[in-house]
């Protein structure tokens, strides 16, 4: 422990990371650098700076960075080009934020000549894996300190007692009583888990949800929106050009208003256990529907099928923390190449929790040929007699198998 001279702590200013900050000073007797990332969690971050100063952190060792545009541009958008969904439902809101935080932790470690990084993830969850795989990929010899795997402060009461003993400021709400669940928020989603949600048969109260209205209370009139795509990314909403972060913020607003994006699942964590999580991902839910609609018009059949085959594997890479890996980079190159012609507009109807595509068009990249697909006279564009030979050839192996009573 005495070998650690300086450590970069992923710091939120909350109870856990404030206790970790003091614990690192006491146990490792090292200099602590705090890093707080603004990825759209919707909280004021300056109190984290104030608390760090109160706990003795030098002004030059406090880093608060606005990463919202980078988060959406370099992490969320590339993931949505892949249509990534984990276990058929989860849009990976927490998972995709961790490599970004790890990236900047390491950049700050290099800038401040720190030899270690630390985080507040527990030894039961996925985040410890995501943070640390990212850190090792970007700084192979870095030391990682994960207090939840080392200390004996394994209850809220012990954390509060430690805070009282060392004069660590604690929010009154934290002291008053345990939260009914744990929350994590960023621009892509809010997650809820733990506490009363640990019973997978418990239906959460409607007041839990923060950014979506219930579908029952959503407007009785549907709203149609238009998304403009360029190389697989949304560049405008309802005709207004926007940056990536502006796009996601706008879609969160629209989706939340119409009760879109709520999810309640039991998922398989990478460490081996099942956990129940509730998620709000209004903008992401709209993005996935719109992107698939745009691809349906502009991608070749087998290219689309190949992407669908690879998507679950890509999603597992993100979920399990393998963002900074050769295989994810290689797969991302394939996905991005497929997006060259994913250009055009999609119209989506938002209504009481549902997103429905009601139109899609691409001026130059559509593979939809009305002359071939029409039910009217196609003037010879498609020879229907070709279907007979096509079917008989595809049926050949079935006919042979049938003669041998294999079917």
Q: What is the topological layout?
A:
Elements: E1 6-10, H1 15-28, E2 31-38, H2 46-54, E3 62-66, H3 68-81, H4 97-112, E4 116-118, H5 127-138, E5 143-145, H6 156-165, H7 172-176, E6 182-185, E7 190-193, E8 223-230, E9 233-237, E10 240-241, H8 244-257, E11 262-268, E12 274-280, H9 282-298, H10 301-320, H11 326-338, E13 344-351, E14 354-361, H12 370-373, H13 386-403
Parallel strand pairs: 1-2, 1-4, 2-3, 4-5
Antiparallel strand pairs: 6-7, 7-12, 8-9, 8-13, 9-10, 11-12, 13-14
Helix pairs in contact: 1-6, 3-8, 4-5, 8-9, 10-11
What do these coordinates show?
It is a single chain. By secondary structure, the chain is an alpha/beta fold. It folds into 3 domains: 6-67 and 94-178, HUPs (Rossmann fold, 3-Layer(aba) Sandwich); 185-299 and 341-361, Argininosuccinate synthetase, chain A, domain 2, CATH 3.90.1260; 370-403, no CATH class. Helix content is 41%, strand content 19%. It has helices spanning 15-28, 46-54, 68-81, 97-112, 127-138, 156-165, 172-176, 244-257, 282-298, 301-320, 326-338, 370-373, 386-403; strands spanning 6-10, 31-38, 62-66, 116-118, 143-145, 182-185, 190-193, 223-230, 233-237, 240-241, 262-268, 274-280, 344-351, 354-361. The strands form 3 sheets. A 5-stranded parallel beta sheet has the order 3-2-1-4-5, sandwiched between helices. The chain has a 5-stranded antiparallel beta sheet with strand order 10-9-8-13-14, covered by helices on one side. It has a 4-stranded antiparallel beta sheet with strand order 6-7-12-11, with no helix packed on it. Strand 11 (262-268) and strand 12 form a beta hairpin. Helix 8 (244-257) packs across helix 9 and helix 10 (301-320) packs antiparallel against helix 11 (326-338). The relative contact order is 0.13. The model has no long low-confidence stretch (mean pLDDT 96).
């Amino acid at each position: 422990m005495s070998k650690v001279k300086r450590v970069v702590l992923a710091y939120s200013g909350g109870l856990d990371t404030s206790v970790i900050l003091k614990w690192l000073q006491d146990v490792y007797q090292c200099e602590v650098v705090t890093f707080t990332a603004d990825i759209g969690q919707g909280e004021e971050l300056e109190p984290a700076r104030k608390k760090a100063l109160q706990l003795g952190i030098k002004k030059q060792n406090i880093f608060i960075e606005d990463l919202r545009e980078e988060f959406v541009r370099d992490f969320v958008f590339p993931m949505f080009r892949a249509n990534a969904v984990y276990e058929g439902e989860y849009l990976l809101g927490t998972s995709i934020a961790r490599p970004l935080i790890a990236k900047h932790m390491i950049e700050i470690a290099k800038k401040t000549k720190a030899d270690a990084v630390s985080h507040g993830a527990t030894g039961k969850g996925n985040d410890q894996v995501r943070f640390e795989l990212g850190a090792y990929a970007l700084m192979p010899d870095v030391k990682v300190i994960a207090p939840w795997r080392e200390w004996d402060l394994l209850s809220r009461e012990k954390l509060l007692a430690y805070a009282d003993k060392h004069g660590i400021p604690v929010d009154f709400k934290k002291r008053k009583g345990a939260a009914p669940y744990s929350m994590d928020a960023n621009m892509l989603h809010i997650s809820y888990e733990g506490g009363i949600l640990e019973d997978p048969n418990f239906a959460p109260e409607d007041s839990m949800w923060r950014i979506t209205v219930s579908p029952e209370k959503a407007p009785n009139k549907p709203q149609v929106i238009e998304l403009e795509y360029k190389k697989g990314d949304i560049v405008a909403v309802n005709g207004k050009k926007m940056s990536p972060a502006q796009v996601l913020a706008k879609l969160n607003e629209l989706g939340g208003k119409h009760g879109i994006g709520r999810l309640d699942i039991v998922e398989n964590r990478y460490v081996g256990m099942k956990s129940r999580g509730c998620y709000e991902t209004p903008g992401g839910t709209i993005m996935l529907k719109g992107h698939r609609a745009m691809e349906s018009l502009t991608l070749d059949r087998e290219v689309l099928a190949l992407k669908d085959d690879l998507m679950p594997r890509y999603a597992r890479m993100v979920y399990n923390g393998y963002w900074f890996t050769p295989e994810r980079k290689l797969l991302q190159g394939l996905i991005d190449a497929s997006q060259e012609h994913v250009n055009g507009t999609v119209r989506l109807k938002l209504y009481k929790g549902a997103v429905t595509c009601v139109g899609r068009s691409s001026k130059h990249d559509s593979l939809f040929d009305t002359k071939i697909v029409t039910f009217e006279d196609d003037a010879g564009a498609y020879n229907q007699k070709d279907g007979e030979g096509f079917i008989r050839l595809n049926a050949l192996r079935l006919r042979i198998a049938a003669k041998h009573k294999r079917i």
